[in-house]
Amino acid sequence: MPQSESATRLERLKLLRARGHDPYPSKVARTHTIADALKSFDALKEKPATVTGRVRALRAHGKTAFLDIEDGTGKLQLSLAQDGVGESAYGSLTETLDIADFVEATGTSFQTRTGEPTLRLSALRIIAKTLEPLPEKWHGLQDVEQRFRKRYLDLIVNEESRAIALMRIRLTQAMRGFFDARGFLEVETPMLQPLAGGATARPFVTHHHALDADYFLRIAPELYLKRLIVGGFEKVYEIGRCFRNEGVDRAHNPEFTMMEFYWAYADYEDLMKLTEELIGALLNDVKGSTALIIEGKKIHCAPPFPRLTFQDALEGRAGITGAFTMDARALAAVAEEKGIAVENGWGRGRLFDELWKHLVRPTVIAPTFLIDHPIELSPLAKRKKDRPELVERFQLIMNGFEIANAFSELNDPIDQEERFRAQEQARDTGDDEAQRYDEDFVTALKHGMPPTAGWGMGIDRLASLFAGVQNLKEVILFPTLRPIHPPLHSPLSRGETAGVPPPSKGEDRGGDVSFSRDKALALLRQHVKNENLIKHMFAVEAVMRTLAEKFSGNPEQWGLAGLLHDMDWEETEEDMAAHSLRAAEYMTEAGIDPAVVRAVKVHNHLHNFLLENIMEKSLFCAEELTGLITACALVTPHKKLQDVKVSSVLKKFKQPSFAKGVNREVIARSQELIGMSLEELVNLELKAMQEIADELGL
Questions:
Q1: DSSP class per residue in 478-533
Q2: Percent of the chain beyond pLDDT 90?
Q3: Taking residues 76-104, what's their average pLDDT?
Q4: Chain center to CA of 392
Q5: How many CA atoms lie within 13 A of 170 on its CB side?
Q6: CB neighbours of 632 closer than 8 A, spacing ≥ 6?
Q7: Domains of the chain by range and CATH?
Q8: What is the largest CA-CA distance in the chain?
Q9: By C-alpha distance, which of 238, 246, 247 is closest to 220?
């Protein structure tokens, strides 16, 4: 059987070492880059130069070989001859050298008969032996995803990919130069934030162990940049990474580069003028033109850009008569008629946005300012004086995508506080992307922020326009891709995003929402033998049914989550990182409602999952407290639940030495997560458990 090329290269590596050559030296003696060598080519006819680079081509002709090498500045041909380096060295090099190896080459310049600039070598050594060959036919490869997974290979062999990467670098540099020249200061603000604010998006959550606190990867730097305006800076900008736990497609990547700037004493009209200047300057600096060509389509970008009001977009272009007078129910009906999937809890703002994004935005190709948005869509923007139901906001739309978003900033702390509370109400009714109430930011505003305009742009999207490509992955060096081999017990192994699993909607994700209790019990007993543990599950089941009634949930569904939540405890007691995840696997295999599966999966506090609905939050808070109540019953004279008082549970809660295995921090979060005081929750759970005291043996 013929030896593979990788095996051959490994043998050549061994041969190099056997002959005393270091195939990976730390020191090289480069005197010229290839670009420098070509510039001073005539001077190198007498004075040798040493260049380095990767071998891209190798052609041997008896006692002479020609190599093409490449560094970060260009390409150069080398002539390796036996009479130049010696017979022994020539033979050794031809035996061990491969295409893609890195070499250090010393020689003088000459031109071949065809006029090719070349170095005639007096020395050549391998400075990095490659053990894997380059793709032979990489350009035009049909499996595009492999280019993104192995970007290093893409950059080696695909000149277009390298050109795009360099263009993006120049674009960012040009943006910095534009704003620096206008007196803006570049600053840095936190990426780890105690609240995810400044945009409407689902965040990633992580945990800081030393502080024992959850933090969010920022979805936007906005609220911190505006704190700097309060602090006295008048023009600030930041270019940095942001993170949004959303879908991955040609227009979205979970981590992306955002530029935001804030300008005191300016409004959104000033920002539109500056945006037109910026786009023109960037095009001239980076492209040398005021037009873009995207997949053969020419887009003229000369200012001024046309303006389209949000109302005209929906009523004029989408043909929704009287859209701005409709309530949420009417808008939802229109959206469904237009083929848009509407979710429970969406308010007018979210419905306006979905109608715009689906029906109008894809048709906007030339640079256009979408202006005057409904206030429900813009909790951080200033109201229009003549139409207070609208805000002073614009989005720059190009080629069907939002490129920039900007508005006159809200600096009225009372108005801001009211809008934050409205966002919290929207969140409570099911909008998991609604913004959170940021008390510290409101306090900052109360210290006074001057009239200010703010602006944000996704660099990835702008770069894709400049590159003339439709997929953001082309302009992100290392885009987020689904793992090929996810960790065994990682949330990623079940198709989720780290930190925050996808939202649970059983009706959308399949599964049996009517899985009977008898079937659930049979499944439970397959995995649990300890009767006391089974009684614990019965207790949590009863509590979850009671909580379902309180929060208008489905008692059967909630009870099922309580009954099965610890079904893998005996199997994972020595590996708590696997606890709840393995149970979720068993439940999925059994065909149980995915909403129930997810509630069980996220209840283990060690995973720091974001709890997204009231059923998940209830299970998280409730199951730990049942253990404390049971422990309180066991220390009564008759060991009965009927003898337990709410006051005694509250007293024992404050005694860490009692029932040490109970995580009191998890229980204490009930006030925050489900809006119930500890006393209320104890009262509810105690009554639920007392009703099934016989089953619990208490």
A1: S-----SS--TTSGGGGT-BTTBPPPP-HHHH--BTT--HHHHHHHHHHH---HHH
A2: 50
A3: 93
A4: 29
A5: 16
A6: 644, 648, 649, 652, 659
A7: 5-128 (2.40.50.140), 162-306+366-474 (3.30.930.10), 491-696 (1.10.3210)
A8: 106
A9: 238
CB atoms within 10 A of CB 14: 11
Q: Which parts of 26-101 are beta strand (E)?
A: 49-61, 64-71, 74-81
301/291 Cα distance (integer angstroms)? 5
d(CA 657, CA 672): 25
Across 396-412, average pLDDT: 93
What is the dihedral angle through the alpha carbons of 67, 71, 74, 76, rounded to the nearest 10 degrees?
A: -20
pLDDT tens digits, 341-370: 888 888 898 899 999 999 999 999 999 999
State the residue for tokens 């009372």: 414
> What's this model's pTM, rounded to 2 decimal places?
0.66
> What are all long-range contacts of 66-70, with beta carbons under 8 Å and residues at least 24 apart?
66/118, 67/97, 67/103, 67/105, 69/34, 69/103, 69/105, 70/34
- Provide mean pLDDT across the span 31-52: 95
Cα–Cα distance for residue pair 93/16, rounded to 1 Å: 9
The structure tokens 């006295």 sit at: 232
> Which one of 64-68, 134-138, 292-296, 426-430 scores highest in mean pLDDT?
64-68
Helix, strand, coil shares of the chain, percent, nearest 5, are 45, 20, 35
Quickly state the pLDDT bin for 252 (edges 50, 70, 90).
confident
Q: Residue 600 corresponds to which tokens in the numbers above?
A: 């069980």
Whether residue 407 contacts residue 378, with contact meaning beta carbons closer than 8 Å, is answered with yes
First-residue to last-residue Cα distance in the chain: 73
**Nearest-angstrom CA–CA distance, 78 and 119:** 5
How far, in whole angstroms, is CA 214 from its chain's centroid?
Answer: 17
Write down the pLDDT at residue 376.
85
pLDDT in the model for residue 501 = 40
Which carries the bigger pLDDT value, residue 144 or residue 89?
89
CA distances from 22 to 11, 13, 26, 697 (A): 14, 9, 9, 75
Q: What is the pLDDT at residue 136?
A: 66
Residue 374 backbone phi and psi in degrees, to 5: -60, 145
Q: Which tokens go with 551?
A: 């929060």
The pair of three-digit structure tokens given for residue 109, joined into one six-digit string? 């310049």
Identify the three-state secondary structure at position 236: strand
More confident residue, 431 or 124: 124
| Cα 278 from Cα 367, distance rounded (Å) | 13
Token pair belonging to 681: 């929750």
Q: Phi and psi at residue 265, in whole multiples of 5°?
A: 65, 25
Bridge-based pairing of strands 213-217 and 117-128 is unpaired
Is 103 in contact with 52 (CB distance < 8 Å)? yes
Angle between helices 459-467 and 159-180 (to 10 degrees): 130
* 203-246 per-position pLDDT tens digit: 999 999 999 899 999 999 999 999 999 999 999 999 999 999 88
Least confident of 213-222, 391-400, 562-571: 562-571
Using 50, 70 and 90 to split pLDDT, how confident is the model at 143?
low
Question: Which tokens belong to 192?
Answer: 């780890």
Report the C-alpha gap between 670 and 672 in whole angstroms: 5
| pLDDT exceeds 90 at position 598 | no
Q: Are 452 and 264 in contact (CB under 8 A)?
A: yes
pLDDT at 492 over 50: no
Sequence-distant (6+) residues with CB within 8 A of 33 are: 51, 71, 72, 73, 74
Q: How far apart are CA 395 and CA 308, in angstroms?
A: 10
